[in-house]
Specification:
A: 234 residues, mainly alpha, 6 helices, B: 93 residues, F1FO ATP Synthase
Chain lengths: 234, 93
């Protein structure tokens, strides 16, 4: 039984392997780019617009609203990075409808690459917002003794991002594969629907967590905006 | 029992126990989280967007510990380095 799409090799020459992870990632990139290009060829600013433009605007304003809710001011600056994370993971899990497709996020290499993007982006945006000294000083908060714990938490939450997404996608694919050998009629369909739901939730979680880490890195020096008041349980 | 059998039995038993024990804690914690979220929703329905979003983020964080245990179980069953090394050594003999 295949643990990940890394082991499904399409083409090999020496040590250069074209496995299913790479091929399906390229297919997703082509799908996203082609769809966006076809829609944005004829954009119109007034009320007479195509339904696809409406769809894209709903998606973009929705993501922007979520980024602003997390606490990032000027959500447009982060929209490219966070929006791409969400759209890639969401498209990767939505395409499981297509038969013969294996989500590339079911391979630890893809999810680790996405988590490393977040790991690199947090200091980048933090330094751009607060300057190098300001950002490095944030590691010493609240006291200097917290410096090793802050560093460890940076590394561990990157690893957690990668393993969370990988575990969810891989377990979905594996359960469907196992059920196909036991009861091939009804339950694989139910589990595919559940896999779609968890895939979309995981895409949302990945991008929201990336947004929260960015928000923590870009304004630690100021007072936080007051969160929504939580009621006392009585 | 030779070492090949011992490795197999240990891997299989621990893989089952790992997922079994590893899902108990997160299940209890998620139940408590959802219960508290429902109480908050009943008391403040107009904050439902924030509460729902925070609930989902919290559930994902709790779920990830269960996922770690599941990944270890999968490694023990499908990508076990000790089993692969023992098989390679047995094939050489």
């Amino acid at each position: 039984m295949r643990l990940s799409p890394d082991q499904w090799i399409f083409w090999q020459h020496g040590f250069v392997k074209l496995n299913a992870t790479i091929v399906f990632t390229w297919a997703l990139m082509l799908l996203l780019w082609l769809g966006s290009w076809l829609v944005t060829r004829r954009l119109s600013p007034d009320h007479r617009r195509s339904r696809w433009q409406n769809l894209l605007e709903i998606v973009i304003t929705g993501i922007e609203q979520q980024i602003a809710d997390v606490g990032l001011r000027q959500p447009r600056r982060y929209l490219g990075f966070l929006g791409t994370l969400f759209l890639f993971v969401a498209a990767a899990s939505l395409c499981t409808i297509v038969p013969g497709y294996d989500p590339p996020t079911g391979s630890l290499s893809t999810t680790l690459a996405l988590a490393l993007c977040v790991f690199v982006a947090v200091p980048l945006y933090g330094i751009r917002d607060q300057g190098l000294r300001g950002y490095l000083r944030s590691y010493l908060e609240p006291t200097v003794m917290m410096l090793p714990f802050n560093i460890i938490s940076e590394l561990s939450r990157t690893l957690a991002l990668a393993v969370r997404l990988f575990g969810n996608m891989m377990s979905g694919a594996m359960i469907i594969a196992i059920l196909l050998t036991i009861t091939p009629f009804l339950f694989p369909i139910v589990m595919t629907a559940l896999g779609l739901l968890t895939g979309m939730v995981q895409a949302y979680i990945f991008s929201i967590l990336a947004a929260v880490y960015l928000a923590a890195a870009t304004h630690t020096g100021e007072t936080e905006p007051a969160p929504a008041p939580s009621p006392e349980p009585n | 029992m030779d070492s090949l059998t011992i490795i197999a039995v240990a891997s299989i038993a621990i893989a089952g126990l790992c997922t079994g024990f590893g899902c108990m804690g997160p299940a209890l914690a998620e139940g408590r989280a959802v219960a508290t979220a429902l109480t908050s929703l009943a008391q403040q329905p107009d904050a439902s967007a924030t509460i729902t979003r925070t609930l989902f983020v919290g559930l994902a964080m709790i779920e990830s510990t269960a996922i770690y245990c599941f990944v270890v179980s999968m490694i023990l069953i499908f990508a076990n380095p000790f089993w692969n090394a023992a098989i390679a050594r047995a094939a050489l003999r």
